[in-house]
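Notes from hallway chat w/ T.B., transcribed later so I don't forget. T.B. wanted the structure written out for a chain they're using in a teaching module, and asked if we could keep both sequence and structure tokens in one place. Agreed to drop them here.
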Amino acid sequence: MRQSDSRPSRRAFLGATGTVTAVGLSAGCQSDSARPDRSDAPAPTPPVSPTGRYQAGITLPQPAQRNLLAVVADVADAGSVRPLLAELGEAIRTLTTGTDARLMGLEPGDLTVTIGVGPRLVRTVDPALPGAKDLPRFSREQIDPSARGGDLLIQICAGDALVLPVVAAALLEQAGDRIRERWRQSAGRGSNVRVGQGLAASRNLFGFVDGIVGPHTKAEQRRDLWLAGPAPVAGGTLAVVRRMELDLPRFAKLSVAEQEAVFGRRRASGVPLSGGTIASGPDLGAKTPDGRYLVPADAHARRAHATAVGVGLMLRRSYSFDGPAPGLLFMSFQNDLRTFTSTLTRMDASDALLPYTTTTASATFLILPGFDADHPLGSRLFR
């Protein structure tokens, strides 16, 4: 299996450090007139609280940060999970508030760290709990065994890309030999496109706005996103993480009209082919005068439509990446795993988008309920 992100060697790191030092020295030799105007400096990024009823990094902040690093690992001893999670939660608090020396002077800004545990660990508590089931296998998968499943998800998001590997190193150092890393993927989001009501979504590598539909209102989130019970998981949610390679050259050979027929939306605006606004749900019954569906029968917007599938809404927070093949780190959050599995099963039958994708990693995790000083991370589930 190819690794998605190789770790830089010490020599490469020192070389990069030397380059930065040289730039800093030359900047120090500039005249006073060449110094940047402090009044033009960007305003500090507002911090995101890591504590509360829900973990940060799912609905907050909005829009999502530009950069992500996802780390999937295994836990060596299930009996060590409770203290491990408590320590990670405390480290998250010091890292996000900027008081952790392991940040090495970097400002955390809007840093969020979201922690999830895999089905194996959930089953040690209760096999009937949400999050105890593994994802089934689907078509168009080429997944190495090391990239299927996992015990621990560490999702790190921030506006500053430099913060991500530094925070990952701190958390992995905190965990020590209690966990073993399986794989990691860094990725980013494109420019945000307004979708109404203070919400925004970004474009994917195919050029289309991604993540328009979802449980955006508080009522929708209570219904489709957050787990309401049983008590050990209340305030959590279920995450699906799938790394997909995208066949950009073949998709780019399609005309714009053909690309729009694949997605069921206009590429430039995100508006459904049935009309309306970008925030409008596609009218699946709308037809042309000669009886053809405006949103084609195999369009992604139709095949993945929650009403057509008969499931709730999923909150998508996906990121794009490059090399050695360009791709998408698909991430969805929902309070019922069937929301995802039923949707992908229906897409497998006939979705014009899937032939341009190959899944190379797949896992599901129970995103733990929120935590605070009195309730350490994971303490409600692992008693």
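Follow-up for T.B.: DSSP finds ten helices and twelve strands in the chain. Might be a good example for the class.
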